[in-house]
Design goal:
Chain A: It comes from Planktosalinus lacus. The complex is a heterodimer of chains A (77) and B (383). Chain A has two helices and five strands, in the order E-H-E-H-E-E-E. Chain A has 77 residues and is of the alpha+beta class. Chain A has one domain: Beta-grasp domain (Ubiquitin-like (UB roll)). The longest helix of chain A is centred in the middle third of the chain and has 11 residues. In chain B, helix 4 runs parallel beside helix 5. Chain B has 383 residues and is of the alpha/beta class. Chain B starts with a helix and ends with a helix. Classes of the chains: A alpha+beta (77), B alpha/beta (383).
Chain lengths: 77, 383
C-alpha cells in the first residue's frame, strides 16, 4: 500500500520536498515512527496530522491512497 | 458624518446582496480587538477601519523598525522608533475618522488580557510568538469570544477561526485543539530569524479581516472548525477540518484565577527540553558526538571517563564555529545551569547542530560513574 504525504512549514524543509509517498505504514503512529527514523530532526517539532483533510487525534489506521498532511505550528506575524 | 456621506462611503458594500444596510449597521455597532500591529495587524486594521467597524482596539508594545517596513504597510520611514499602536491609530484616523480607536501601548499579558478582551466582540490574533498565541487563545476561550487566528513563516500562512460555530456545528474548537503542544525553544523560529515574504502577512491579515466581517454581519460561512493553509510558492490553498482534542483542554486554565497565574513564558519557552540525563548521555557516547565543557579552565573536578573539549562559556561563541563539526553537541558544566545557557546562546545561530545540556552537570555525571563503576567492581568480585 502507498500513502501520499504533504509536508508543510519547517517539515517541508527537513524532508526537502513538499510531497512524497511512503509504503507499508499501517497507521499514523507507524508513520510518525518511520518519519523520525528517516528524519531525526522531526522529533523536536510537534506537528498535527491530517488524514484526507481531517485533523486527527490519537492513532489512525491508514489505507492505500490516503493523503496525509504534516502540519507544524508557526508563530510569525 | 451625514447620512448621505455615510451611504456614499460604504455604498459599494451596502449594495451587496445579503450585506446591505443591515450589515453596515452591524459593523458600526461592532467592537473588534487587534492584538499585534505588525505584518498581519497592519492590513487587517486598514480594512477593518475602511469597512466601518465602529470600535477597534489596537494592542502593541513595540516600536517601528526599518526591517518592519517591507510588510507593515501602515508605517513609513518617518515613523521609525515610534510606538506602533499610536502610530497606526493616527494613520487609521486619517483613513476613517468615524471609527473609534482604542490604543493599548502595552504587551498582552495574563494581568491585562481578560480585562481588555472582555470589552470586544471579536479578537484578531496578529501576534508573532507562541507565548501570546496560547495566552490569547485561553483568554478568548474563557471569555467565549470568537478568535480569528493567523500565523506566517517564510512563504506559508495559516488562518482559522476559534471559539465560534456556524449553525450546523456543535463544538467550539480552539488553538489548543489544533496544536496541543508548543514548539520547544529549539525550533521556535520567528520571522526575524527565518524570514517572511512581505506580501504574505498582507494576504493572511486580509483573510483575518474577511472572517471578522463575516462573523459580525452573518454573511457566508465562517472558517470555524477549519484550518486554512496558504502557500505563496505553489499558490495552493488547503483546508483541513479540526476536531476537539479532550487532552489539550485539560492543559488550559479552567477559570480566570488559573489564567492569571499561568506561566506562558515557561510553558512555551522552556529550555528544559534540551536537558539529557547522565543515563542518556551514556547511550549517546558511542555515536558521533561532541561534548563541550563550558566551565572555566581551573574548575574541578574533571568529568570521569568523558572526553571533552574545553570552551569556557564566555569564549564559546568565538571557539565553537571553528572547532566543532559534529551535528550532535552536548554541553556540560558544574551543575547543569551554564550548559543550558550555552544551548540558549547557540541554538538559533547553528541550525545544523542539535544541542543538549547535561542535567546536573559534572557533579551528577561523576556520581553516576562512581556508582556504576562500584557496581561493576562488585560484579567482578562475585565471579
Amino acid at each position: 500500500m502507498e500513502i501520499n504525504i504533504l509536508a508543510f512549514g519547517q517539515i517541508e524543509e527537513i524532508i526537502g520536498k513538499d510531497s512524497f509517498t511512503l509504503s507499508d505504514v499501517r497507521d499514523t503512529e507507524a508513520l510518525k515512527s518511520k518519519l523520525s527514523d528517516l528524519y531525526p530532526e522531526m522529533n523536536r517539532i510537534p506537528y498535527s496530522i491530517s488524514v484526507n483533510k481531517n485533523i486527527i487525534n490519537g492513532n489512525h489506521t491508514l489505507e492505500n491512497g490516503d493523503e496525509v498532511a504534516l502540519l507544524p505550528p508557526f508563530s510569525g506575524g | 458624518m451625514s447620512q448621505e456621506n455615510l451611504e456614499n462611503r460604504y455604498h459599494r458594500q451596502m449594495i451587496l446582496k445579503s450585506f446591505g444596510k443591515t450589515g453596515q449597521a452591524k459593523l458600526a455597532q461592532a467592537k473588534v480587538l487587534v492584538i499585534g500591529a505588525g505584518g498581519l495587524g497592519c492590513p487587517a486594521l486598514q480594512y477593518l477601519v475602511a469597512a466601518g467597524v465602529g470600535t477597534i482596539g489596537i494592542v502593541d508594545n513595540d516600536v517601528v523598525s526599518l526591517t518592519n517596513l517591507h510588510r507593515q504597510i501602515l508605517f513609513s520611514e518617518s515613523d521609525l522608533s515610534k510606538p506602533k499602536a499610536t502610530t497606526a491609530a493616527a494613520k487609521l484616523t486619517a483613513l476613517n475618522s468615524e471609527v473609534k480607536l482604542n490604543v493599548y501601548n502595552e504587551k498582552i499579558t495574563t494581568a491585562n488580557a481578560l480585562e481588555i478582551i472582555s470589552n470586544y466582540d471579536v479578537v484578531l490574533d496578529c501576534t508573532d510568538n507562541f507565548e501570546s498565541r496560547y495566552l490569547i487563545n485561553d483568554a478568548c476561550a474563557l471569555l467565549d469570544k470568537p478568535l480569528v487566528y493567523a500565523a506566517v513563516l517564510k512563504y506559508e500562512g495559516q488562518t482559522a477561526v476559534f471559539n465560534f460555530k456556524n449553525k450546523e456545528e456543535v463544538e467550539r474548537i480552539n488553538y489548543r485543539d489544533l496544536f496541543p503542544n508548543p514548539v520547544d525553544a529549539a525550533h521556535s523560529v520567528s520571522c526575524n530569524e527565518a524570514g517572511v515574504l512581505g506580501v504574505l502577512p498582507g494576504i493572511m491579515g486580509v483573510l483575518q479581516t474577511t472572517e471578522t466581517l463575516k462573523i459580525i454581519t452573518g454573511i457566508g460561512e465562517v472558517l470555524s472548525n477549519k484550518l486554512l493553509v496558504y502557500n505563496a510558492l505553489n499558490s495552493s490553498f488547503n483546508t483541513f477540518n479540526l476536531t476537539k482534542n479532550s487532552d489539550s483542554q485539560k492543559a488550559m486554565p479552567q477559570n480566570n484565577e488559573e489564567f492569571k497565574n499561568y506561566d506562558y513564558e515557561l510553558y512555551c519557552n522552556s529550555l528544559l527540553s534540551f536537558e539529557i540525563t547522565t543515563e542518556t548521555l551514556t547511550e549517546m557516547i558511542d555515536k558521533k558526538l561532541t561534548i563541550i565543557d563550558v566551565r572555566n579552565p581551573d574548575e574541578q573536578p574533571e568529568a570521569v571517563d568523558l572526553s571533552t573539549f574545553k570552551m569556557p562559556l564566555l569564549e564559546l561563541e568565538n571557539l565553537f564555529e571553528s572547532q566543532v563539526t559534529s551535528s550532535q553537541v552536548v554541553f556540560i558544566c558544574q551543575t547543569g545551569k551554564r550548559s543550558l545557557k550555552a544551548v540558549e546562546l547557540l541554538k538559533n545561530n547553528y541550525s545544523g547542530h542539535t544541542f543538549y545540556s547535561l542535567k546536573g552537570g559534572v557533579l551528577a555525571w561523576n556520581e553516576f560513574k562512581n556508582k556504576t563503576n562500584e557496581h561493576s567492581q562488585k560484579e567482578k568480585s562475585i565471579y
